[in-house]
């Protein structure tokens, strides 16, 4: 191996959960004191992750409480494969190209980590974790205490032994991950907060990364989406039910609540989710250069100028009874380009594509615009995998899927086409 190395934690990072906590819920499901034992195990996990208890004390305490066997481990693996963090799951392409330089380093156990990460093109020999010890009946009775990862500061000891050349970047949610930076063994530590944010860890990080997309973006690495959703501000205004906000937050958007659409938000909001009766001043609407979509819980026509929105390439979804439905339409537009059930845009439902880039171009509906767009693709020698176009009297909405790599000049040329309103790379 050569080049940069990426040291990634497993529990609450590569997966959404703490595996030993989940194993306890499987192995102790019929135990009369299970709720008390669950709490004890979770407390031991959190104390170690926050640096309040030595890792070995935490590990020993948890393993003793498990009452688990090999059959329980098989059930756990099936469960964990469905619990891979969303931003890792959608970036399999990165691992396909960089898997040789990825190390999974965890205080967890190979028995459940290896089968979960191998499908991500990570080499088996790059998986560093503990191993269980069993009795003759297959019950877990302990762990290999000679493994440095079973000790306090185990990740530090392991990386010292590996002595990798080149720059090393660490991604994780816990104190043991930060220790790699504290002891000078990695160039940068990224606190991963998609699943849990431990403030004592995050405040020491070089960078807080709410998703793996963010890590790839700031390091200029291949990413499944062109722009991390955590960098898109969703401004929630007025009376909006919690389930709609929760849906967009879970999808990865940054959430901010406000009483009204003020001038200070015009320059930064990418999404507005607005309760019934709320209004947006037309002057401020024209200043909202980053605004991509508005979700309105009611009929927006008297409160939000649809003509200005269309002119600026802002997609409006409204008049939908369920608040969560509005949130889902917003997410589908940002994630896939769908404008189905939009109040002001040509309605377009799109298939999801794999192994392709999707480009969105919104332009004034004038003669010859499609010819100019396709001439840019031809001049840049780009083959089109698929193209979708819908228009209304004001605008044309064209989505182009291209396979293979492209030069950044293509994007510059598409943005410069006369009558372009908005352009973005979706993924």
TrEMBL record:
Start and end residues of each ACT domain: 358-427
**What Gene Ontology terms for biological process does this UniProt record contain?**
L-serine biosynthetic process
- Which pathway does it take part in? Amino-acid biosynthesis; L-serine biosynthesis; L-serine from 3-phospho-D-glycerate: step 3/3
Q: What Gene Ontology cellular component terms go with this record?
A: cytoplasm
Identify one Pfam family in the record: HAD
User: According to the UniProt entry, what is the EC number of this protein?
Assistant: 3.1.3.3
Q: Which domain of life is it from?
A: Bacteria
* Protein name, UniProt field: phosphoserine phosphatase
Output the lineage of the source organism.
Bacteria, Pseudomonadati, Bacteroidota, Chitinophagia, Chitinophagales
